[in-house]
Design brief:
This protein is an alpha/beta fold. It has helices spanning 14-23, 67-76, 103-113, 138-149, 213-218, 234-244, 265-280, and strands at residues 2-6, 28-34, 53-57, 60-63, 84-91, 118-124, 155-161, 170-173, 180-181, 185-189, 195-199, 204-205, 221-227.
Amino acid sequence: MRIVVTNDDGVHAPGIALLARAAAAYGQVWVVAPDVERSAVAQAITLNGPLRLRSVRPGWIACDGTPTDCIHLAINQMKLAPDVILSGVNPGPNLANDVLYSGTVAAAMEGARWAIPSVAISHCASGEDLLEDLAPLLPGLLAALMPMVRSRPIAFNVNLPSVALGPWRGMQVTRLGRRYYSNEVHERTDPRGRPYYWIGGDHVTMPDIAGSDCNAVRDGLVSVTPLADDITRYDAMTDIHAALVGPATELSVVAAAPDHPHPALADHRARAADHASAAAGSPDGRSNGAIWPPQVTTKESS
């Protein structure tokens, strides 16, 4: 199995090292992650500037773009053809509507767009000081998740209760809850007298919603939320249709949009099959073909 690991905290963040180490038990791991922190960039992709890839050490690649850029390049430029994508471990929760802003979750959503099983993992504790306490727990978490996600090419958002609160009570499949931040904007002045602003408040409210990711984590349960990229408000379509077109014509509302695979998906799947075949014939069950960096042929001087 080939696994690509990424994050939004940067290639040198401690959380990605923990996750890559735990994932190595399942096969060949490639780390493709931002060169610096790119938190809260959502699913931004770089279109108006160049992107560069730099080898940090064997199997570890830094990209000067977003988490989405990392996954896009891993699939379409590096041709890694991963079987699974793991994103994290994020030092802080990605619950409820956090998923709309999170770079950690965005990487998993980009993987799912290419029909690759993808998991975003976040630890619901502020700061990185407790991440090392997750090290002995991650193998068990992946043992529970990997057999399930491998056959389901969608995105999963996993939130881990803080290890500081005691042992986890189990695992729960959840829906997204609601999470409201205080609307604080801090105005300050730079040395030249010009105002600048910091967005972000300290107070967070999470309503009690049965079956939600917020409730699960609050109850000490690992939350596993399957995510979709179709954000259509189907429940509002009939009413809006009546208001715009009139009630005389009926609107056929389907539960979800039909699946239309990306045109390049067949090529990706073919590469994945090739890597699987090569891995089956190698002594350690891995494909040993050189993928990155690309091989450069130089013209010999006469």
